[in-house]
Structure formats: structure tokens, C-alpha cells
Amino acid sequence: MILEHRTYTFKPGMVDRWRQKYEAEGLLIQKRHLNRYVGLYIAEIGHLHTIVLMWAYDSLADREARRRALYADPEWQKFISEVWALEAIQTQDVMIMNPAPSSPGV
């Protein structure tokens, strides 16, 4: 198993607007393709205007195949173009992480 840890930093005041659109539209599309949703977390203390989105995959090959299918989905293309039009996201950082042997489910 691998974990994809995506950190997004938003312009002040844009997290809730993005989250509402994502939860109403984008998440449903991603769940159809990516399948193993770990969660969406919003910073309360520390680096504000930041969210972390996590997905689990069986392997890098599994991630690649699932994301390729997502990117080919016309609904996703429509959603993502609308999200970029919001001009809400300032930075994006993606990490692929391997679990330590002591991690649950390993």
C-alpha cells in the first residue's frame, strides 16, 4: 500500500468555497475512480488556509492507472476547469508515502 498526501494552500477566504464545491462534485467523481479515500483535513492551527487530501493505493502502478482513468473522465475535466477558474489554490504539494511496518493495516 502507498499513501498519496496532497497539501493545498489557498488564498485567504477560499477554503470553504473550494471545499463545498469539491465535496458536492469533485469527490464523487474521484471516489468512482480512485476508490480508497482516506480523508480531507483542514488546518485549524498552524499553516492556515491549508487542506490535506489523502488517498491510498495498492502500488504506484495502481495509482497511475486510476489517475489516468480519472483524467480521461469528461466530468472530471469539467469540474477541474471550474476549480481552476476559482483561482483559489496558491500552492500544491504531492507526496507519495510508504507505511512503516508498525502502521495499522500493513
Given the structure, what is the number of helices? 3
Question: What is the alpha-carbon Rg in Å?
Answer: 14 Å
Task: Output the helix-strand order.
Answer: EHEEHHE
- Extended strand count: 4
SSE-based structural type: alpha+beta
State the shape: globular
Quick check: average pLDDT? Answer: 95
CATH class, named Alpha Beta
Uncertain residue ranges: none
**The number of domains:** 1
Strand percentage, roughly? Answer: 25-35%
Biggest beta sheet summary? 4 strands, antiparallel
Reported by name, the CATH topology is Alpha-Beta Plaits
Trace the largest sheet across and list its strands. Answer: 2-3-1-4
CATH architectural designation = 2-Layer Sandwich
What is the CA-CA span between the terminal residues? 8 Å
* Fraction of residues in H or I helices: 40-55%
What does this protein look like?
This protein has 106 residues and is of the alpha+beta class. The protein has one domain (2-94): Alpha-Beta Plaits. Helix content is 43%, strand content 30%. It has 3 helices and 4 strands, in the order βαββααβ. The chain has helices at 15-34, 60-72, 74-86, and strands at residues 2-10, 37-42, 50-57, 89-97. Strands 2-3-1-4 form a 4-stranded antiparallel β-sheet. Helix 1 (15-34) crosses helix 2 (60-72) and helix 1 (15-34) runs antiparallel to helix 3 (74-86). The longest helix is centred in the first third of the chain and has 20 residues, at 15-34.
